[in-house]
Structure formats: C-alpha cells, structure tokens
Sequence to fold (99 residues):
Amino acid sequence: MGADPTGAISRMFGVYLEDAGLALRGTFLISPEGKLMNAEVNFLNLGRNIDELYRKFKANIYLTKNPKEGCPSKWRDDGDQTLTPGPEMVGRVHEALNG
Fold:
C-alpha cells in the first residue's frame, strides 16, 4: 500500500478521477521483473480484502513456477487442487473441481 498525494501513480495506472481529484481503489500485483500479474479496481466506497489479496499473491507465485496450471477461486496454497486450462474445461470447472 502506498500514498499518492499528487495522483501521479494513480494516473499512470488509469484509476485517477480527474473531475473528483480522487483515485479509485486500485490494487496491482507486479512481479519483480515488472510484469503486471493481477489488477483489481474498486469504486471509492468498496473496501478490499487482504486475505484475498494474499491468496492472489501466493497463486501468482505458484503459477509462475507452474505455468500450465490454473488456480481456481478456492485455491489457497501449494497442494490445493489446480486445473489444466484448455477448451475442454469451458463450462466444466465446477465438475472438474467436484467430480
């Protein structure tokens, strides 16, 4: 988390509301290599969940090491069930996770 009193960073990420002089609540996970791994933008009055952000952080680390896998929304840590993305998974994620 960080403050952006001039709005420079908010403008760079496209979340600054010029008319209001405020920034939307943006959360961005950026790899050490500078690659954007995850972005979430909420309106001004919607809070963020640190547990979910941490889950996404860990999932992105896992997926960097296992790029052919996908982490479903209930994935929490190494050892949890993952999926192998592909056309055959369309419409079958629930079935694959609960089969």
